[in-house]
Each structure stands twice: as structure tokens, then as C-alpha cells.
Amino acid sequence: MPHIVPLELLSIGDLARRAGVSVPTVRYYDERGLIQSTRTAGNNRQFPRHTLRRLAVVAAGQRVGLTLQEISTALSELPSDRAPTQREWRHMSRQWAATVARRIRQLEALQTSLDGCIGCGCLSLGTCTLFNPNDEAAGEGPGSRWLRKADAAAVTD
């Protein structure tokens, strides 16, 4: 007869301590659906041990500059009832690699434009009249439109 090990649950404090985050951060991630808890009779949150892996995925995503929404989308493709397999992690990490590569291209485009005008349309720099004569950028709307165009071009390159 096989020995069945009960699912080990961690308190919110234990999970936060093991993951290296604060208790409010764990609550926030739980409320946003990045992780899932169960409640005790006393309404205390408890988390399966595999939640530590999901929190590691969140931390990894944040380290490469992903938003919580992007991380949430990636986590939605992973199982919520167990740690991801190596194959599942590899599939997700390939998608993240593409996102990181796109951001690198965007940052390179920004780096190239930093010594000139970034297309804000403000005319506050003396050289803006060279890049934006007669404030042509204002006709295109608010914000750094030219920078966004450079971002879009970097993505399609």
C-alpha cells in the first residue's frame, strides 16, 4: 500500500520568509491571482509548498523587467496546483526571452537617440528646433511619439 503524504501547507509568514518577500506582498500577489491560498477555519491564509516556485517565477520576471500583468499572463499558462515541470518552464522562458530581446532593441534605440532629441515636442532644448522645426511633433499628439515610433521600428527589425 503506497504511503500518501498530505499536502504540506505554509503559513503566510513562513511563505514570505522563505520567498524573501514581505507578508503584504504575498497578500497582494494572492489577491491578484499570481498565487493561490486556502483559508483555515480562523481565516488565515495557507499556501502549498509549490507556491515558493511560483514566487520564484514572479521574482525572475521582475528581474528581467516584466510587469506583473506580463508575469500573470505567463503564470496562467503554468499549472496552479503544482510546481512547473522543466518543459513547462522552458516553454515560458522562451516567451520571456523574446520579450527581453524586444526590450533590448527598444533600449538600444533609446540609447542611440539620447544624444539628440527624443521627440517629445517640448522645444525646451536648443537643438529641438533642428529635430522638430515649428513644433511639428505637437500636431501628432501628446507624449514621446517619435520615441514610440522608434520602439515600433525596433520591434519589427
The level of helicity is 40-55%
Q: Look at the structure and give the mean pLDDT.
A: 79
Content of β-strand: 5-15%
Q: What structural class is derived from the secondary structure elements?
A: mainly alpha
- Please give the order of strands in the largest beta sheet: 1-3-2
CATH class of the largest domain: Mainly Alpha
Offer a quick outline of the entry:
This protein has 157 residues and is mainly alpha-helical. It is built from seven helices and three strands; from the N terminus they run βααββααααα.
Q: What do these coordinates show?
A:
The chain is mainly alpha-helical. It has two domains: 1-84, Multidrug-efflux Transporter Regulator, Chain: A, Domain 2, CATH 1.10.1660; 105-157, no CATH class. Helix content is 54%, strand content 6%. It is built from seven helices and three strands. The chain has helices at residues 12-19, 23-32, 51-63, 68-76, 86-113, 128-131, 145-156; strands at 9-11, 38-39, 45-48. Strands 1-3-2 form a three-stranded antiparallel beta sheet. β2 and β3 form a beta hairpin. The longest helix has 28 residues, at 86-113.
Q: How are the elements arranged and paired?
A:
Blueprint: E1 9-11, H1 12-19, H2 23-32, E2 38-39, E3 45-48, H3 51-63, H4 68-76, H5 86-113, H6 128-131, H7 145-156
Antiparallel strand pairs: 1-3, 2-3
Helix pairs in contact: 1-2, 3-4, 5-7
